[in-house]
């Protein structure tokens, strides 16, 4: 477990602060009581816990350098550290198929082609515009090996290596959330996916079904709809009519459409329309958005292939447009200038 390489010691192939934080988070968030968890741990893990308390207390949020990549075991999961209040995850764009992880037997196996590349293009576009980095988490494994947008039983099954990759993916998101909250006190989470539906448009999933989106604005503004969405905290904080946040003139859908990317929901496409396919949001955005009242809001974004994901040029163009969208969105609804980066808290 402990290795000395070129004068720098590592834990299981990882830098010590990263390995410690991942291990501590994994142990402390399991649902079994703490004492049995610790009793079940090996002696070296207990030592790691003691060392982790010292190092994490001393280093705090400085363990991660913005723009630098950190990896889980086997390099199956990558975390590009950030210093902006935006988190982007890409669970379905990986292509690695290691023999040591068996193929999943049940579930969805379709890859969201080029979403890994799109996540990297987004990271670059945001840095180019704001001078700061969003937090980016990428699963580099093929979806046949692990599905990081399902619960662990469906997404990883019984295989220990698959379960570890799944856990590291979720833990990296939690680490990013902790850094965002420490710097800004609030933030936004974007779970990035690809779709090939007949209508070419960006689908924004707030965990409201297509049948709910067919309601008139006055119905969506009734108590309860916002509380069933992944922008629940934003709705409560602003006090604005929920339909305005969802598909008003300054909504994500409206801002995307204004930059040449039709989106649903938006003023021009308030609902998916009868008979049209639509993804309303899955495991990740339900867990990491504000559906359960947390301080970070979120959306699942499903982008079409042609015109967005298919070429490097299209990915770069969309990424620049989305950076503009979030520039306006954060300014309007959070009162934050993304150019401030980690200095937001001190404003």
- Percentage of β-strand residues: 5-15%
Proportion in helices: 40-55%
Structural class: alpha/beta
The number of helical elements comes to: 14
Beta-strand segment tally: 10
Q: Which whole number gives the mean pLDDT?
A: 87
- The end-to-end distance, rounded to whole angstroms, is 43 Å
Assign the CATH topology of the largest domain.
Aminopeptidase
> Strands across the major sheet, in which order?
3-4-6-5-7-10-8-9
Write down the overall geometry: globular
Structure report:
There is one protein chain. With 347 residues, the chain is α/β, with parallel strands linked by helices. It folds into 2 domains: 1-63, no CATH class; 68-347, Zn-dependent exopeptidases (Aminopeptidase), CATH 3.40.630.40. Helix content is 41%, strand content 14%. The strands form 2 sheets. The chain has an 8-stranded mixed β-sheet, sandwiched between helices. Strands 1-2 form a two-stranded antiparallel ribbon. Helix 1 crosses helix 6 (160-183) and helix 4 packs across helix 14. The longest helix is centred in the middle third of the chain and has 24 residues, at 160-183.
Attribute tags:
347 residues, alpha/beta, Aminopeptidase, 2 domains, eight-stranded mixed sheet, two-stranded antiparallel ribbon, 14 helices, 41% helix, 14% strand, disordered N terminus
Give the SSE map:
Elements: E1 2-5, E2 8-11, H1 16-28, H2 34-40, H3 43-59, E3 69-71, E4 77-80, E5 86-90, H4 115-130, E6 135-139, H5 152-156, H6 160-183, E7 187-195, E8 202-205, H7 210-213, H8 217-220, H9 232-238, H10 242-247, H11 252-258, E9 263-264, H12 283-288, E10 296-304, H13 305-309, H14 312-333
Parallel strand pairs: 5-6, 5-7, 7-10, 8-9
Antiparallel strand pairs: 1-2, 3-4, 4-6, 8-10
Helix pairs in contact: 1-3, 1-6, 4-14
